[in-house]
What we know:
The protein is of the alpha/beta class. It has two domains: 3-39, no CATH class; 78-429, Rossmann fold (3-Layer(aba) Sandwich), CATH 3.40.50. The protein is built from 14 helices and 15 strands. It has helices at residues 28-41, 78-88, 127-143, 160-171, 185-194, 204-210, 249-258, 291-304, 323-335, 361-365, 374-390, 395-398, 407-416, 420-432; strands at residues 8-11, 46-49, 58-61, 93-107, 113-126, 151-155, 176-179, 197-203, 222-226, 245-248, 271-276, 286-290, 313-316, 338-341, 369-372. The protein has a seven-stranded mixed β-sheet with strand order 10-9-8-6-7-11-12, with helices on both faces. It is globular and about 60 Å long. The N and C termini lie far apart (49 Å). Bound molecules: 2-acetamido-2-deoxy-beta-D-glucopyranose (NAG) (4 copies). This is AMP-dependent synthetase/ligase domain-containing protein. InterPro entries: AMP-binding_CS, AMP-dep_synth/lig_dom, ANL_N_sf. One of its GO terms (molecular function) is long-chain fatty acid-CoA ligase activity. It comes from Nyssa sinensis.
Amino acid sequence: MSNRGILSVFKHHGSYGIVGAVIVAIFIPLLLSMIFVGKKKVKQRGVPVEVGGEAGLAMRNGRSTELVEVPWEGATTMAALFEQSCKKHPQDRFLGTRKLISRDFVTASDGRKFEKLHLGEYQWETYGQIFDRACNFASGLVKLGHDVDTRAAIFSETRAEWFISFQGCFRQNITVVTIYASLGEDALVHSLNETQVSTLICDSMQLKKLAAITSSLKTIKNVIYFADDEPASDSNISRSMGNWTVSSFTEVEKLGKRNPVHPRLPIKKDIAVVMYTSGSTGLPKGVMITHGNIVATAAAVMTVIPKMGSNDVYLAYLPLAHVFELAAESVMLSAGCAIGYGSALTLTDTSNKIKKGTKGDASVLKPTLMAAVPAILDRVRDGVLKKVEEKGGYAPYLEGKSDLCSVVELRYLEIHSDLSISVWGLLLVKGMA
Length: 433
Ligand SMILES: *[C@@H]1O[C@H](CO)[C@@H](O)[C@H](O)[C@H]1NC(C)=O
Ligand SMILES: *[C@@H]1O[C@H](CO)[C@@H](O)[C@H](O)[C@H]1NC(C)=O
Ligand SMILES: *[C@@H]1O[C@H](CO)[C@@H](O)[C@H](O)[C@H]1NC(C)=O
Ligand SMILES: *[C@@H]1O[C@H](CO)[C@@H](O)[C@H](O)[C@H]1NC(C)=O
């Protein structure tokens, strides 16, 4: 699959929140082109390597003497990486989710209804706790009757349970099929049929959509859904789902906790993921990714952004069904960072789904790392420009009124505005005072 456009990763260190930030943006395609351009002019940055397979030019980073394949010795699969990292950082924060305080609907002047969320602080679970949950889920899956030689699919928006199910499957060497939550029915039926998926893991919103296509999903036996905060809506789901066994994620965890099953760990060359992303031309295609592929990607990124650790906080909001976010979260796992979940629609204080006057994900989490794609940066830019316009120019920012915009917006200003240096300068002084 392609990483369309520029993918960037920001990292900043700061003893005082966002202040004193250092940003490193890595433009992957840019980097690749630099390797080729830079070769002629300056020192050699890329070294040609023989990888076999199809003819073509394969290069590796000239900084390392060998191909980087694992983040550390022994972490040759996602399952091993996960277990070892959880054992290294048992007490550190790992996955965090914001508490839902209220869900309202506002009606716009044209009569359309918009959902507005009031979200609270992040609630964290440690590496140790998440490891136990993944093990319980894996046992529950087996106990539920999932045949471990068949595949499980995850069809959901990015959230903590996504990552836990994913790791749980690997504990039993189950290949995970990932499907973009935005894909249509045809694409969904096609992907699940092509990979003969027998267990489908989804969020309750997707579950409602499935009811209409039960008859087309012939290979599915079990459906596991992530229950939302409103249990009332769940009671009738199972009745409308034909021959499927429908369970909530929590039920499967409980089942596994009561009936532990020995792990059945994969090896490096086993397929970890079959990833379906948007098929811009016709049906989506599944890309097979081995355990070795994912850990090598995580290892490679760690050589480019070194010194990440348990003080780092990553804001996760891009689709995990895409390799970019999946790789990024695998890097965070390797480095022992905290991952706080959010969404593109709740990212900043001015995001569409955020109730007016309440905080966006970035303001609450104060991440030190986030991944971004151009479409998201455009949204942030629009938010910034709107505020600058409303306040009559950049002056309020120059006066150090940092509360006027969110972390992400400030970071955006820093990168894109000529005035940003002074804005940061002032904030820095204010912050240190
Ligand atoms: C499912 O896949 C089989 C081949 O594996 C194919 O013959 C069949 O037409 C597919 N069905 C659907 C609904 O795509
Ligand atoms: C559940 O289904 C029953 C019968 O099918 C129906 O009478 C009841 O209203 C449903 N309850 C909810 C909460 O949808
Ligand atoms: C349920 O399974 C039975 C027998 O296996 C089959 O005849 C029936 O069509 C299935 N129902 C649905 C809704 O898939
Ligand atoms: C993992 O599962 C795959 C596919 O089911 C199988 O081919 C492979 O041998 C398994 N690996 C191990 C180590 O059992």
